[in-house]
User: Fold Proton-dependent oligopeptide transporter, POT family from Alloyangia pacifica.
Amino acid sequence: MSRLARYPAGLPSLFLVEMWERFSFYGMRAILVLYLVDAVETGGMGLQTSEAVAIYGIYSAAVYILALPGGWVADRFWGARKAIIAGGAVIILGHILLAISGSTAWIFLAGLCCIAVGTGLLKPNISTMVGELYPKDDVGGRDAGFSFFYMGINLGAILGGFVAGYLGEVWGWHWGFGAAAVAMALGLVNFLYAGSRSLQGKGERPPPKVVDPATRRRDHLVSLGIVGAVVAILVLLIGTGRIDVTSAEGVAQATGVLIVTVAIGFFLNIYIAGDLSAAEKKRMIVLAVLFVGAAVFWSRFEQAGSSLSIFAAELTDRRLLSFEVPASWFQNLNPAFIILLTPLFAWFWTRAQDRGWEISVFVKFGLALVLVGLGFWILVPAAKIAMTGAKVSALFLIGTFFIHTCAELLLSPVGLSTFSRLAPERFVSQMMGFWFVAASLGNLLAGLLAAGMDTETPSALPGLFNQLFFGSAIAGLVLIGLSWPLTRWALSGKEELAEDERARP
Assistant:
């Protein structure tokens, strides 16, 4: 396959849709925690840091866990195209509610709920449509295509961080939220235009698989059992006082239990009652292992919106000549590095496949976990400087974001590519949703890890950053060690998957 064919005609259209959607999401994310902790007198909510980061974790988790029902709706009813259109419209409504909420908390919360629901419909299904553009045996081309698509995500993120972050911090928080609504509207218009041209025929509902009554009955029984188990576990934990749902941190803990049980239940439902072949079940085990690795990764990486955001705002010297850099702008470092490094990574994936180099997805994920840990390790001496009361050089955070970006490019676009390639054909959108549940769990854990961060007396920071380093690095080394046996057992020792292999009994 030529290098040009690895960037098919529909890819730039999906790139632009995702760019504007991520503008809206990351623009709002850049100012959310800062808005929540800002004093009421200056337009904020006046919350404690622990409450604000817990709310951030709950919201971020909801955005990604709702990708599961979003994928289910597409697979069963609408198809990916209609789900994306509906999701975009609901996101626009959510940002409008944030912009007009003023001091009315319920309108603000309704806006967050709309954004979460809309993103759940859009995120897994636009990734599914990217996967539809490639044959299943083109591993390198697919990885390169998703890397290009991922650059759209981060171009939108950097634009959103600059525009919404600046408007929010300088003009007023709700100006930033309003800018995000305009961006999502541009993305939706672009998608509607492309639907009749470069994306025509893509994203339709997959043909339903005919199943016998016994299989359908087993599916229903497994689903009911999973729902019952989720409810019973939550009732038990709340009833015994192990989880206190009267605080944001308690709700975050309850949400974490919910995410874990839903993820396990969803996986078992497809694995047991999905009428899968033996080969498909082995590939499902691969995806489950990658899910765990991704959750650990995102729990570290998503400190960018919580602990690293507060670190930038309160402990970092942000002076640049006579200008003080807004704290929210530090989050633009990651998407800026993504844009710079993506062409290099995309070139490497296609080059590696052309030369016959076999680089297991487990190795890629393992290296990503090690690198994201190293990003926190270099912050340990910075935290010790902060303990003396001095402001920390911005170079520490710049270095951390650069290392984290390299780690992200090894994991996130590769994970999207792998899930779209290895998922059973009739469950592709749902399995893309399952991938985003890993991000949901990681985002929630990131908020809980940051909830104990005390920036006024930062003596606990070296311990926190060391904890983040060792937990991630150990998980990465384990994943690298499992690479050869898992690839041999589940994928017959190779990454490629033939076009007809999914249906093989």
In short: The domain at 8-202+214-490 is CATH 1.20.1250.20 (Growth Hormone; Chain: A;). The beta strands are 319-320, 323-324. Residues 139-171 form the longest helix (33 residues).
